[in-house]
Amino acid sequence: MKRPRVVAVIPARHGSTRFPGKPLAQILGKPLIQWVWEGAKESKSLQKVLIATDDPSIAQVARSFGADVVMTRADHPSGTDRVAEATVHETADWILNLQGDEPLIRGSVLDEMIQGLRPDYGMGTIATPLDKVSDLNTPDIVKVAFTPEGKALGFRRQVAESEGAKWMHQHVGLYAYQPATLQKIVQLPPSEGEKRERLEQLRALENGIAIQVLMLSFKFVGVDTPGDVTRAERALADRATTISK
Fold first, then answer.
1. pLDDT tens across 82-118, in order?
2. Which of 13, 95, 219, 232 is the most exposed place for a label (fewest CB within 10 A)?
3. Is the model's pTM score more than 0.90?
4. Closest by CA position to 103, among listed 169, 24, 44, 18
5. Structural domains present in the chain
């Protein structure tokens, strides 16, 4: 069987509302974006890893640690749009949109995801088990429901506990797209669900694009605000201790 060609893109912008300059935030002596890039470079299934940014300072730092950088427009409304611009001339079977705020990402997780992708879906993503029922009411934790076959049914920020059984899965914002699907999505206007929930994957789902959900066990710590840096450092230190034993 032919090995699929997979290109990963880490979109990075400086002007985050909740955490300006987030990609360059120092975590245990390295910028956040470098942790993500190093995790991706561990993958045995990726043929190329790109950092896509509109910010010269991010580009300079990324090149200093050896990353391939693509400069993109500054007016993209989402990371997906930035990834689409960065890969418009790439030849690939799948494009991976790797969130730049997941410093615990590992190449083994990306390999497991890539190996599970099915070509009858235009798009894939991953989920992990939800820790506790009370997380259903936490809007910062995105929930996903899907069929036993792995077809996404919906994504929500908050779910009533009475309907929670099928929603006990946390969505991890890691996406794989077939290139034609990615280019189609960024041409579509924001959907009603996307605007209501502030979840861009609903644009695809509400326009009839089937999304595959792969259930993986993956400990992650997203860095959304300055207060998350300490939590990420603690998790990375714990991981290093575990590996050294």
1. 999 999 999 999 999 998 888 999 999 999 999 999 9
2. 219
3. yes
4. 24
5. 6-127+170-244 (3.90.550.10)
